[in-house]
Amino acid sequence: MNPLAALPSPDTATLDRLHARLADAAAAAGTLDIAYRTMDTPLGPLLLAATPAGLLRVAYESQDHDAVLAALAARVSPRVLRAPSRLDEVAREVDDYFAGRRHSFDLPLDLRLAHGFRHEVLTHLRDIGYGHTASYAAVAAAAGRPNAVRAVGTACGVNPLPIVIPCHRVVRSDGSLGGYLGGVAAKQALLALEAHAGRGRDVLQT
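Above: the chain sequence. Below: its structure as C-alpha cells.
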C-alpha cells in the first residue's frame, strides 16, 4: 500500500496560498521576471502578463495562452510564474472597463514587444478616445507615414496589449470593421460596449 495515498489532496485555496508564497519568494530573490494570470471576461478568458516595468501582454484564448507564455519565455525571460495577486490591479481595471465604469487604463506598460513603426502606431492608438474610431489611413498619417496603411494593419494585428491599447477602435476607411486579433465578433462587442459614450467626431480624421 502506498502510504502517500492516504494523505488528503490539497484544496484549491491551499494550492493558491502555496503558489502565492512561491511567487513572493521568487520576486524577493529576483527570479520572477514575468508574472501572469488568467481572468474571465465577457469575451472569454484573458491572459495577463507583466514584468516589474509594467503590463507586458494581454491575450485572448483564441491566441493560445500556452503558446503566448512560451513565446514570452523565449523572447523576454524563461523566469515566468503564475502569480495572480501581482496582476490584481490590472484585473480590476479590466473588470471596470467591461462593466462600463472605466474609459481608459491607468497602468504602467512594458512595450518591449513592439519595435520601430509598430511601437509608433501603438502610441497613436492610445489617442483614439473611448467610443470613437479612426481609420487605418488616419493612424498611418498620424504616425507620419500616410502610405503605410498596411503596416498599421500589421501593427494592430500583433498588438501585444489589446483592449488596453485599443486597436479595436481602428476600422477601414469605408466604415467596415476590418480584422481583429481577437476575432471580428470580439471587435464588434468592444465597439458596442463603448457605443454609449457617443459617436461624435472621430479623434483621428481620414
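Helices lie at 12-28, 65-75, 88-98, 116-125, 136-142, 149-157, 184-194.
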